[in-house]
Amino acid sequence: NFKDYSWGLDDVSDEEYDFAGTAIHELMHAFGFLSSLEGPEGESVGANRTVFDRNIVTVRGTRPFFLA
Prior knowledge:
- By secondary structure, the protein is mostly helical.
- The chain has helices at about 20-30, 50-55.
- The chain is built from 2 helices and no strands.
- The longest helix has 12 residues, at about 20-30.
């Protein structure tokens, strides 16, 4: 049933949106990742971390972000 259906995963022109890329982008927002790299007043990103950001650790238990 699915072999004749176009899933839209082919190359995308400049006039089109990439469904898979857009879906992944929006899922990352749902998981707590933000698009902004600086605060609303232009302050350091470390001053604008979310609770999610403050709890991210690497496999070794180190924090990958500088938390000011």
